[in-house]
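[stage:ingest] chain + small molecule (glycine)
[stage:ingest] validated
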Amino acid sequence: MSKLITINMNRKPIYDIMIENDFSQLAEKLKTLGYEGVKATIVTDKLVGPIYADTIKDAVKDVFSDVFVYAFDAGEQNKNMDTVQAILADMVENKMNRHDLVIALGGGVVGDVAGFCASIFMRGIDVIQIPTSLLAQVDSSIGGKTGVDFLQYKNMVGAFKMPKLVYINTNTLSTLDDRQFYAGMGEVLKYGLIMDASFYEWLLSKLYEIHDKDAATLEEMIEHCCICKQRIVERDPEEKGDRALLNFGHTIGHAIEKYKNLTLMHGECVALGCVAAAFISWKKEKLSMEEYYEIRDMFVPFNLPISIDDIDDEEIMKLIKSDKKTDQNGIKFILLKKVGKAYIDKTLTDEEILNGIKEIHFVEDGE
Ligand code: GLY
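[stage:predict] done
[stage:export] tokens:
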């Protein structure tokens, strides 16, 4: 059942992604990486920590001289500098030093915050990622993006900090609630749309197995996503080019997430953003009408939204324009040429984007 994917940079292996169905291989791998005898801080949140922190501590008890746990309140609203400061203070208190290790245990927020703490503590110490949500397992734990939200901006402060290991235990998905699971499916479908048409077809063909959370299907799906991510981050680790394709659905998605004050999940907003971006791709005559409707309707069986009421289109547009990825050269928008092929478009007019927002804005008859 075990799978291993190695991330290489300039033809040199940088770190492994291990896909397992328990934590039994973790201690041995940490020893191989040379962490015997050092101290470790498990950074987690107050939802994941109570479920897995003791299991991890137990699994690594023969590796480290000391293991500390720092759990912060769960949720994107805590992905900020206050949380970073509290974690760093705890690490100082525990006399962590530059040979010690941060273990990020949790979903996307935990991975981003813990990775960022590791990147700045004593000018940078090692971090390993143990992602426990589908979204983190298929995307955010891989590729070294870390950071926090700052002022009104998402991910405004951060660093590229490659982990020394990504250890995925697919069994942790059993403790995710359905809403979190399907939110992660938004990012899974994204890979098919932007870079792999046959994966997209495979996902549609495995709908029932995915709903049933069939272990072999989920493992194959996660492995495939990790390989997609590997292909992109090896080519463009610091998002100077193609890595931006991973932001498909995120321009409008982030704006909705912010407009809704984080009451919708990231993956749900990404699904809405993908539908809007596919619509714009149709209007730009890149996709046919049939392709657009097929893409839109594909999100439905995965319990993801394709429209939203109660938004103000102009406000969403303003939020897009205030996003840090909007520079003087225009909004960097990811569109589709076809299923499995995305491209970067910086030429969209406000009207074209607004029409995309209107397409996903559900208005009751008579309103
Ligand atoms: N989650 C997008 C990226 O890693 O670039």
